[in-house]
Amino acid sequence: MRRRIPPHMGLKLLAVWLILSGLTTLVDLHFEGLGLIMGVLAIVAGVLIAIER
């Protein structure tokens, strides 16, 4: 059985990435692994946006 990806999931992940990116700059938010989380979010969002029809 194939799992279906909810509609616009790539755009939702992109929104999370943009919010986190803004917060890290605006309020100097930093924690261990932030770069890894941001990188993974960017890749997953990009792939989902690219394969969405």
Low-pLDDT stretches: none
Mean pLDDT reading: 87
The SS-based structural class is mainly alpha
User: Largest beta sheet, briefly?
Assistant: none
Helix content: 55-70%
Beta-strand segment tally: 0
**SSE string:** HH
Tell me what the structure shows.
- There is one protein chain.
- The chain is an all-alpha fold.
- It has one domain (9-51).
- 68% of the residues lie in helices and 0% in strands.
- It has 2 helices and no strands.
- Helix 1 (9-26) packs antiparallel against helix 2.
- The chain is elongated, with a radius of gyration of 13 Å.
- The chain starts with 8 loop residues before the first helix and ends with a helix.
Can you give me a brief rundown of this structure?
By secondary structure, the protein is mostly helical. The protein contains two helices and no strands. Helix 1 (9-26) runs antiparallel to helix 2.
